[in-house]
Records
---
Amino acid sequence: MIVIGWARHADIAVVTIDNPPVNAGSHAVRSGLVAALAEIATQPEIKGVILIGAGKTFIGGSDIREFGQPLADPQLPAVIDAIEALPIPVAAAIRGAALGGGYELALGCDLRVADEKAVVGLPEVSLGLVPGAGGTQRLPRLTGVPVAIDLILSARRISAPEAQSLSMIDVVSTDDLLEDTISALRRLAGKRRIADMPVPAFDPAEAKAAYDKAIARAKGRPAAQQAAQLILSASEKPFREALAEERAVFQAIRISPEAFAYRHLFFAERDAARLDTAAASGSKISRIAVIGAGTMGAGIAHAFLSSGYHVILIERDEPSLTAGEARIAGLREQDFKRGRISEAARQAQAHALTAIAALDAAKDADLVIEAVFEDMAVKRDLLARLGSIVSRETIVATNTSYLDIDAMAEGFPQLKRLLGLHFFSPAHVMKLLEIVRASATSDETLATALSVAKRLGKQPVVAKNAYGFIGNRIYAAYRRHAEFLIQDGATPEAVDRAMTGFGMAMGPFAVADLSALDIAWRMRKAQAATRDPSARYVDIPDRLCEAGRLGRKTGAGYYDYSSGKAQADPAVGAFIAASRQAAGITPRTIGDEEICARCLGAMVNEVALLFAEGVARKPSDIDVAMVHGYGFPRWTGGPVWWSANLPDDDLKSVLAQVAAAEGPLFRAGDVDALISALKQ
Ligand code: NAI
């Protein structure tokens, strides 16, 4: 296969990059480019060169198969050197995406012309890397240092019009990209190397503000820190010196533990969105019925409307329907006010919504999602009624958080077309979508659900129908262990601080207060009769609920919110002290390290149990679920990757601490088997 070809258009050489599916900048692409440029250099009648991608894109990024391997020559900087050394101007004609190494290649050119729908950007930091082929040095010469810091540290993809306003591209083509690039190239007098341009002067205070903001947003991770330093170097050091520094940092960071963790997730996310059986193709879905327009139903409906689906919103009565419609309108208005959608999109979304208080309306849907109360009797009755309303082709999904989908489906005839679609709150924001396979769900149905997830921009993870599926079950083990910690001597604030220090988006007690304590309380009460009385049980949350402290919604939970902010509350301390006394526990000081070790160990142990039961298809799916749905820090690779990369002795000690705290009924998972499955 020829990856790079070139042809003459009068006195212009057009070099085509043809490396499907996304024209990744592989070794073959790099060496092909160097060879083509060398040939072109021998032909004096050629006055200019255009680099263009075959198919839908320019260069989508570097070749991920080369990630983590030693890089074979020629490397990307050598290709860019060849472009800059050519005495005639070179233009990048950008269609689709020019990202990472693809955009760095474009920055090596004298001119950048992009199709109006193209996106450009340097997202390396999101993979734990820094741009390594001049991106940190050339971009600030176009945009200025403060903007370059924002762009590179946020890893944002920039649309062509915005990229033009930031000088990242020179021309936006609204017609024929190649023709427009040829015209723009002819207008260029000669070489216009970014390397020869000065870095625009900037206000150090502005750069410092951009730096502080971007570093805080990137949670101070090493890749962000290093990238920011390199961008600052652009204004402080000669170009070649700073370029060499960038390359050295890139070579070191690409084999750092964080870069491997990010790469693990990159592949894990792709795997999680794929079905093992290639046979199933799925069916076409365009009309969605959402039943129940409460917190979840409204968010789910809004997510579908935002992705261009038609939604039929169904409620049990008119007042609930009106309230649900108002919720959706509120989300739409918020998107509009924040500039996320245009006036046309806002109107289109409003037109695509039909709201009705009659279940029969579900008959017109290709996919029905129920988000009614979390109550087995209510959901069972609903499914039984739906069975005689929807067509044989319709897929029916439940958004249940915990309930047994097989048991729910007893009166439903089309079992092959029934599954769980477990969205997370807020449903239009959270990326994770657990796709729950009930015992009779067909591959076809699963394939359809995966393609719907893709169109919604969600990250799917397939789970088996089991209590709490993947995420909620692991989170429950984490939360239970966090409660043990406060009974043993830690405060809720200390636990939250230690876990956010580890990188969790929020601590477990702050999360409990946010999502309200009464949901878990109801569940504990329902399970009370079957609970083993000899198992360790912490009654603190029950006492908080009895005292009306249900979390943020009541102004108090583990924290007091009366001042508008979460504050430690001595009243909670009193509940904790009483619980310790009743359990005969003498509190001791527990450091952050032990808090983290035990919380994470409890999660990993539950992961091992759940994996052995076949609830998740592969360990990497669990990492994806925890990162996308539960605020687990991405740079650790997820709980399984994290545990697999701990030294053996540390992991053993972490698990031993969990076992000791959990008491005699502790069920140890086979963590070794989990880790070896991850490595397969
Ligand atoms: P919610 O109480 O806010 O909304 C439920 C809605 O369903 C109400 O508007 C109610 O009028 C409507 N409804 C009840 N019975 C109905 C029927 N027979 N026909 C039509 N409408 C009916 O509840 P929420 O929080 O939205 O939860 C809904 C489902 O989503 C539950 O199964 C819950 O477990 C699940 N879920 C909730 C999450 C959360 O964070 N709140 C997260 C993920 C899943």
---
Amino acid sequence: MNEAMKLNRTEVADSGVYLYPCLIKTVYVLILTFLPTKCRRKGNSHIAMARRMAPRWFAPAFSLRAGSRKAGTSMPFDNDDNFLRFDSVKKSYDQKTLVIKDFSLNVARGEFVTLLGPSGSGKTTVLMMLAGFEDVTSGDISIAGQSITKTAPYKRNIGMVFQNYALFPHMTTAENLAYPLQVRKMPKADVKERVNRYLDMIELGDFGARYPGQLSGGQRQRIALARALIFEPTLTLMDEPLGALDKKLREQMQYEITRMHKKLGFTVIYVTHDQTEALSMSSRIAVFNEGVVQQYAPPVELYEHPSNAFVAEFIGENNFIPGNVRSIDGKVAQIDIVGGLTISATVGQGLSVGGRTVVSVRPEKLFIQPTEQAYENEISAAYVTHRYVGDFIRYYFQLADGTEINIKVLNDLAAPNFVEGEQGKFVWLIEDCIAFPA
Ligand code: ADP
Ligand code: MG
């Protein structure tokens, strides 16, 4: 039953349909409504049973109940890159195939690190191993120099935010926020003070007496965020927390999370498949594909200097021009492309003379002639069509071998006009294109 639920959650959450997990969750919420009061007196066997039965996305409810303050405060914090470390972590669910192939990552305290990758690339699995709800098949995870791979989830002092809020529906907003503090036995007066402070911080100061059912999606997610932060966890994990919100609310919440992060300085491991979200919020991003980190770097570096064709394609947009490497001189390669043309490109990792290559160049780095922009490469191609996208126009050209070239031009008076089939010339700099081995 547990396995079926896990798979279902993954599939359903990834496809953006939330009804089924919500139903299952409600059942567990109802179970929990009784557990804390009735079962504690009788011993913990029911709690242990519910913990075993609960799907993995609900597990934080249990860790909030039992979480230990000591785990967070007794650790000798350091400020270097080694606050959180994954060392060659591998994960297999079926003992045959590795879902996470060899995952290593260093995170400094206070960083906002995002795991970015296509659906099914293993992002949630990494978070679940970090939180302790999935075993590590091999390798090690450590926080502040101490291995946590054998530490029980509730002792890791980790806060979590999910797409589906996971608020207790029978508790008011203030009670939801007070809960993690009460289970940590914080004195009543301090709980009240801190709950009010956090409600004010998320600008819901007047909403303390409302129930989750009386709040909008955005407000609920702000409460879920505050609840994950209020007990000052060692780490806060967020698994696609904004996936259920519409675009406008999502942008507001991105701002809200960034603001809280700046103000409170907590450490975040954030998961998303939305690259704009990752680029605008993170101190560093790890781009995932098939359980392997392709590149781990700050947003600007990732965008400007992708280390391979997968990252170049995944982050932002790129044109890919196929060709052969004629020569390499230091950082610059000469590439023969279709129609007897030669272009110069920055040498990408693993490029070798004589090999096949794809040269990546972003649509906004290409300029249609005539232009005042400086340039080192110039080629021509047949105009196909263009599309207005409001503040800019997208032009589509085609090389003789059918390779499509997409150019983004500001929608101003200088935007050119072409007729179908007409040859257009466009130019760009060597530093704006990278030749990757194909
Ligand atoms: P992501 O969060 O990047 O979409 P996941 O970590 O959820 O990816 O899943 C990575 C891979 O592991 C997928 O192929 C998924 O089907 C598989 N997987 C995830 N959870 C389980 C599980 N509990 N049992 C078996 N396979 C799983
Ligand atoms: Mg996921």
